[in-house]
Amino acid sequence: MLTFQSAVTYLLALAIPVIYLTYRHYARPQTTQIPAEDSKKPLKSIMQGPRDDLEPPKDNPYTTEALKEFDGSNTSKPIYVAIKGTIFDVTHKAEVYGRGRSYNIFAGKDGSRGLGKSSLKPEDAVADYSDLDEKDLKVLDDWYSFFQKRYNIVGKVVGDEKGDAADPPPANL
Ligand code: HEM
């Protein structure tokens, strides 16, 4: 004969594992769950977007010396940044490339090495990127495409009288 006491014990023995398993199932820590749809969302960039009003690229030759004129020190002149020998007009972003601004180090010169190495050191802001490893070369090419989509090409860097050979324009971009 089942006593009241043993019936309660029996019910509890059944109920406790059921409650525990239900808790485990529904109350797992949320931190380990990354909703699939969230991880697919593209990250919103704080950088400017690509432009669709760019002019056809120009092929004007500039020596390294001539390019220095366009480093943002003279506010009545445009600001130029060269990457792999291609010169981009970045005047409309004077707030980042102008004198005393964060990326002025790249203005009026070809600073390909620094762009590839993600370095803002003055000694890295030089045209010679021949010692970059594969990863940094990819970073440099990504910068090239970034600029190509946003800035007008006004010319290319050519060797000056001292015989400095400028880098040939990239074939794959
Ligand atoms: C703590 C480190 C850094 C932070 C927080 C940072 C932040 C930013 C921000 C907010 C922009 C967008 C600026 C704008 O469009 O107004 C930008 C653009 C840029 N950054 Fe950096 N940056 C950092 C490091 C670097 C380094 C080390 C380099 C060296 C290659 C670099 C090169 C650039 C360049 C070339 C742009 C493109 C500007 C343009 O033409 O729109 N940044 N960065």
Quick recap of the structure?
InterPro entries: Cyt_B5-like_heme/steroid-bd (IPR001199), Cyt_B5-like_heme/steroid_sf (IPR036400), MAPR/NEUFC/NENF-like (IPR050577). With 173 residues, this protein is an alpha/beta fold.
Instruction: Name the average pLDDT.
Output: 84
Ligand species: protoporphyrin IX containing FE
The CATH architecture of the domain at 60-158 is Roll
Tertiary shape:
rod-shaped
Number of strands: 5
Helical fraction equals 25-40%
CATH class division of the domain at 60-158 = Alpha Beta
Strand order of the largest sheet: 1-5-3-2-4
Structural class: alpha/beta
Tally of separate helices: 6
The value of Rg in angstroms is: 30 Å
Could you name the ranges where pLDDT drops below 50 across 5 or more consecutive residues? Answer: 28-35
The main sheet comes to: 5 strands, mixed
Distance from first to last alpha carbon: 89 Å
Helix and strand pattern: HHEHEEHEHHE
